[in-house]
Amino acid sequence: MTNLTLYAAISRFGALNYRAKIMLMAFIGTHIPLLGIIAYSVFNLTRDPGLIWSTLGIALAATLVGTGITLFVLNQLLAPVILTSKALRTYRETRELPALPVSFRDEVGTLMADASHTLQRLDAAMVQLETVDPATGLMNRDAFTDTLNEMLAQDKAPAVCVVRVANYARLLATYDQSHADGFMRQLADRLEAGLERNVPLARVEAAAFAFIKRVDAGRPESVEAVLRENLSSLSHPVPVAGVEAMPELTGGVALAGVDGAYGADLLDAALAAAANTTIPKTVSRHAPRVRQEIREQFELEQDLRKALDSNEFLLHFQPVVCHAEGRARSAEALIRWDHPQRGLVQPSQFIPIAERSGLIDKIGLWVMREACAQVGRWNAHGGDRLKVAINLSASQFLDPRLRDMLAEAIEAEKIAPDQLEIELTESAAMVDHDYTRRTFGRLKDLGLSIAIDDFGTGYASMSYLRKLPFDKLKIDREFVSNVDTQPDAQAICSAMIALGNGLGLHLLAEGAERIEEVDYLASRGCNLFQGYYYSRPVPAGELIETLSDIELLSARRKAEMPAPAKLRQVV
Length: 571
Known about the structure:
Blueprint: H1 5-10, H2 18-43, H3 49-94, H4 107-131, H5 141-153, E1 159-165, H6 168-174, H7 177-194, E2 201-205, E3 208-213, H8 221-234, E4 238-240, E5 243-245, E6 249-255, H9 263-275, E7 282-285, H10 288-307, E8 313-322, E9 327-339, E10 343-345, H11 347-357, H12 360-380, E11 387-391, H13 394-397, H14 402-413, E12 420-425, H15 426-429, H16 433-446, E13 449-455, H17 462-465, E14 472-475, H18 477-480, H19 487-502, E15 506-510, H20 515-523, E16 528-530, E17 538-539, H21 540-560
Parallel strand pairs: 6-7, 9-11, 11-12, 12-13, 13-14, 14-15, 15-16
Antiparallel strand pairs: 1-3, 1-6, 2-3, 4-5, 8-9, 8-16, 8-17, 9-10
Helix pairs in contact: 2-3, 3-4, 10-11, 12-14
């Protein structure tokens, strides 16, 4: 390597640029002979002063002229180096390619030529990285939106068509990136072959292609027909790692001027439309309403993540009424979300989001602890001992820590275990038969009662249910609604009640909204009811008063009813 000691030493003079430093060194170098003559003349001044002074004058003049010429030439010779330096800096800051001369053949000439060629190759590589998908060789998202914006600027009104590969993630998980890329490359080749020449085609996401289609005047549906044909032509097996893999494709369409005015908006709209359908070879038009709903769901999920820390959840309680006694001794705890902007959000809106986002276990744990805490507060105020039922999600039920968490919540509030009831949906109870049987046994050993919720909507077999140690069957509201007038519902409810009574279980009809429903099911042997006929879910502070109102309602109705010799049978 060339020795840079002198260069490093001179570089310490930060106030001077490179050109000034070279000029300074040249100036000093050209004046060294003059300084030598001056020194010689000083020591010999007495010999011939006239000769000395004339010699000094000539030497000074010659030195100054020579210095000027030297500095001028050096400055010109340094120009290529300075030009190359500025070109490199300009490219780094602005990505503007320099126009450096490439015809010179000496060292500085090759420096300029090599710098120019290197920057051109670098720029081409960067353009390739920025605009081309490496796996398929197609345009990427940025290049596609730029092309789309250019067409929009020319007052063209194209449609954006998206082909989404729904099983791409499974392919990637099954094999590896190279095989997944090979799969997409073959699909890209097929798609490109099926399009007209010069149609802009791009891979805009890992699992999605997009192309631009001209819209026939007054016939936007023609675009959907073309995309549907493309999906059909692509829906043939693709060889991947020795296996014939069938692509699962959906399509989305967005129209310029209708679904967006800018390229990025149109592409996003078409992608959203393709993602909204799960049926293979189906084409979906962009629907702003659907996209708005998706956006609201996403925003709600982000708010949901903060709700626990912000103490935005609360419990409401819906009484469970014993028809024979005309009073309620238990209630179901139902979570509500008091959103700071949206107000009270119902569980049907946020529970599915919590399940998808993995927040359901944290929320379920909060419900468990808060329900036990509320029972403890009621116990502290005296009066009748109330039992509270809480719902478990499927993932909560499968948590091996479930029994310990319940035991800790009960112990923390010093309540009796029999004041807590666990509700599990029929479908959740059927996930793992052996696990369900063991877990039910452990919860029963703890002193808890167990209810099967939404009974009749799942696929549990009668022979399986009778082997489980649980206490209560909850008949789903789907069968309770208008049961007094619906023969099919009557037959189903009668069978459920007979099953429950035969197994020695308590029967609870949920969703009872009319007295006729209550009377019919009570006459068939169902004794527990929950629904709007008796009470809506109420805040904890209103439950005691609500229970008193239910007793008054039941007493008043008994007083108004005639006393027939036997109950009238409703067929």
